[in-house]
Design a protein that fits this description.
Elements lengths: L2 H23 L2 H8 L3 H8 L2 H23 L6 H18 L1 H8 L11 H22 L7 H22 L4 H14 L13
Helix pairs in contact: 1-2, 1-4, 1-6, 2-3, 3-4, 4-5, 4-6, 4-7, 5-6, 5-8, 5-9, 7-8
Length: 197
Amino acid sequence: MTGTQRRRQLLDVARALFAEKGFDGASVEEIAHRAGVSKPVVYEHFGGKEGIYAVVVDREMDYLLSAITESLSEDMHPRTLLEHAATALLDYVDTSTDGFRILVRDSPVASSTGTFSSLLSDIASHVEHILGVHFSSRGYDAKLAGLYAQALVGMVALTGQWWLDVRKPRKTDVVAHLVNLAWNGLSHLEHKPKVRR
């Protein structure tokens, strides 16, 4: 196995172990054992548990932020953008369950730039910019875009955490209900919302 292949293997093993047991429950010994290598191999590539954990978290954060940013990059109706962003997050929860579990779990090595809350803050910044443009064009106070961005991103992220374990209703139904609440508000909820795409 090349050094690059070994590094990738160790990251994959560590990712699964951190998702299963959390940072505190995982050990270099177990990472090495599951990868079929000695502990010094893990230390050689990552310097220890903190190092491999940091790389795993960075990869997951980059992947999720890219997916959501890409979903917000098109010029389309704000409701459709909201649907795309909510779908991107729930797609990540659905297809990268281990990664999402790692991101939402607290750890002692997480810093202000490597936590789920910092990731949500980055996403909210993108949403704030989009909302600011739409608020201004519709005569709303663009200074409030940050507040609404935080509320929308928080609502979708917390719903994603809940849906991670329950997986009901279907993903598209969850998106439709999130958008229904965000778009129509509690006083104008549709009885049977559907994703419009």
